Amino acid sequence: MLRVTQTKNTLLDGASMAGELYTTPKDCEDFFESIEKPTTVIAAPRSTFIRAGVLTTVRGSAYMEYGNTKVMAIVAPPRELVRSSVRRVSMGVINCYVNFAAFASDELEVVPEREKHLSSMLTKALQPLVCRNEFLNFQLDIRVLILDDDGCLLSTAINCCGVALIECGISTYDLITASTACIYRDYVFVNPSAKVEELLWQHRGGNALLGSSGSQVKGGPVQEHGLLINASMDTFEQLAQCQQCGYLKPETYVKLLDYTLEINRSLRELIKRVLTERVQEQHKLDMRERDEDRLEDERLAAIIERLQQQGLNEFIMSNIKEDPHTAK
Fold this sequence. Notes:
By secondary structure, the protein is an alpha+beta fold. It contains seven helices and ten strands.
């Protein structure tokens, strides 16, 4: 007889709330009835804001708001592996570091574990994206700062890092986009909030709600509940990462996968537009700097020409202005 037990998973431990909203199945039932349930599934991204090059002190940076989830990513140029840990590798090494801002989470005791887990998952998602064969024996450090967490945290971090890598000039095989979808009590939540993710964590592993029509009885079937995070590269029709948590039937898994791929395609067009505008903005800045340098070169050339025509002493005397108070 198969026995399902609940295990901790930091991907679903995503709520940043001041206190426990529900500690018993009855509390969970009350909370589930209070939230807005989707009547139809709309495979579209949240309200999204992306900005590349937000920091001038680093070469590659990006900031992304995905609804109320706010993330900043920083990418430094590749640097040589430390001699004490150097080893002959066939491809470059990617190191991802995820950190929560001090005000981003109220559950401080679980923050180190979440940071470690998110860093590992982010590294796995970005490894197929970067052309690591171009910087052998070098390492690429990617740092992510979580400013606010309202669900879809890992997928938002993947999208933000993809933009930061392009801004830094790191060679990649494609643009990467990621999104999240979940199912709970036959309701499909696209881009679930932190509260919905917390709801999945509190009652995953076959613990159905009290009073629900599909509640689990001893020896009965396990109710479907789970979350899917999908990162894809559409040009090659490849999945960089596909993370599942919970129990999903094969047909449900395929349905959630289709929803996330549709969202990824929409995000890809948005990111392409943001990067295009960034290139145009940088081109205008380069042209302005070029014009300023040209004017400065012309001014210096005129000064040198005057110096050659007048001689050094006459040129110095012509540029000395008489003090009116001394003249009197």
